[in-house]
Amino acid sequence: QKEVEQDPGPLSVPEGAIVSLNCTYSNSAFQYFMWYRQYSRKGPELLMYTYSSGNKEDGRFTAQVDKSSKYISLFIRDSQPSDSATYLCAPRGDTGRRALTFGSGTRLQVQP
Amino acid sequence: NAGVTQTPKFQVLKTGQSMTLQCAQDMNHEYMSWYRQDPGMGLRLIHYSVGAGITDQGEVPNGYNVSRSTTEDFPLRLLSAAPSQTSVYFCASRETGVDEQFFGPGTRLTVL
User: Fold this and answer.
1) In chain B, which residues touch A (CB < 8 A)?
2) For chain B, which terminus, N or C, has the lower number of CB atoms within 10 Å?
3) Min Cα separation B96/chain A (Å)
4) Could you tell me which of A27, A46, A101, A60 has the C-alpha nearest to residue B42?
């Protein structure tokens, strides 16, 4: 079993829809949770960063962490065609090395 | 700032050939790393470096060598290419003590 699991998609939604992207993990030592966005044929870039359980909002994006069920979500409101990308969740434990464990990503397509 | 740059963008090798993937960053980041990205597997850490002269193995180091003679450069060497090394390779860097990693645009490698 992989430490971090994501549905690969593709997830296709119409412009303006609310999108929910999800990630499950098995390592209870994970404390920090990141979402990276990767456009086609580009390197990933950090989108959201949260610590422990709870919600964090940044514009149209909300990251939600439920440590009790080991479940991470990224919500996108009013989705735009420019949000079409692959979204990778990347949790890490509380160690000095700050090593990330990346999920395989969910591909999102927002149709205009 | 150019950020993280990688060369070449594309490369085709024959089994048994060797080559070096170049990575450079101009952000004065101490931490640099190499990942490979394969379909359904996410990003997997190959090698990393916490500063000039210091390198260590990641999750999938076999078949790869690294060195770090300067803060700016972190080349990845394939000693004897195998078809299993066909992948997209990403170099990343970050500041010490900070989680956000900055990724290069990637090198697409095919080994025949």
Assistant:
1) 4, 35, 39-45, 58, 90, 92, 94, 99-106
2) N
3) 10
4) A101
Tokens read off for B65: 């060598």
Please give the Cα distance from B69 to A17 (Å, whole number). 49
Name the burial class of residue A70, with classes exposed (0-12), middle (13-18) and buried (19+) by CB atoms within 10 angstroms of its CB. Answer: middle
Query: Which residue of B39, B45, B100 is in closest CB contact with A46?
Result: B100
Q: Which of A49, A77, A79 is nearest to A65 (CA)?
A: A49
Q: What is the C-alpha to C-alpha distance for residues A109 and A2, in angstroms, rounded to an integer?
A: 25
Instruction: Confirm if B13 and B112 have CB atoms less than 8 A apart.
Output: yes
Q: How does pLDDT run across B67-108, given as a tens digit for each residue? A: 999 999 999 999 999 999 999 999 999 998 888 999 999 999
pLDDT digits (tens, 9 = 90+) for A74-107: 999 999 999 999 999 999 887 666 778 899 999 9
